[in-house]
Amino acid sequence: MTLKQPVSVLVVIHTPALEVLLLERATRPGFWQSITGSLDWPEEPLQAAARREVLEETGIDANPERLRRWPLAYTFEVYPEWRYRFVPGTVHNTEHVFSLEVPLPGPVTLAPGEHTAWTWLPWPEAAEKCFSWSNRDAIQMLAGAAPLARTA
Q1: Which of 72, 73, 76 is nearest to 93 (CA)?
Q2: Which domain range does residue 35 map to?
């Protein structure tokens, strides 16, 4: 097992009409989220990590012109039961937020073992369905329903 870096990306994939793609975690049925993932190595550029994670988790090739990095990052404590997956001594993770606009909702190719289902939902339903507060807040900010906050 490759240990994770304590820096990650969150990518909210959406249409112009603000339909949002959510994926259900394989290891936590009922836990829905946008695309997330850790950097593969400490110097991996954030945009490269975001593009890689989108491709790995959905099969979508993220057009660099449509992939937007937000001036927003969340730092949060890694749950103790998940710390073994990170480099030794990791207690906190910093998550950098991106969005990717696609023209229309479409089918995705899930990463085996990572996710079991996908759905496109209107942004209010997507925000409500997310188990992660940072994911929920990002979807609400995308829709203009919450101010851009917690900048890093």
Answers
A1: 76
A2: 7-142
What global pTM score does this model have?
A: 0.92
> Domain for residue 129, yes or no?
yes
- Say if 148 falls within a structural domain: no
d(CA 28, CA 12): 20
Residues sharing a CB contact under 8 Å with residue 128, sequence separation 6 or more, in sequence order: 136
> Contact, 6 vs 86, CB < 8 A?
yes
The answer to whether position 125 is within a domain reads yes
| Cα 133 to Cα 117: distance, rounded to the nearest angstrom | 20
**For the chain (length 152 residues), average pLDDT per consecutive 10?**
92 97 95 96 95 97 93 94 94 97 96 95 98 95 71 41
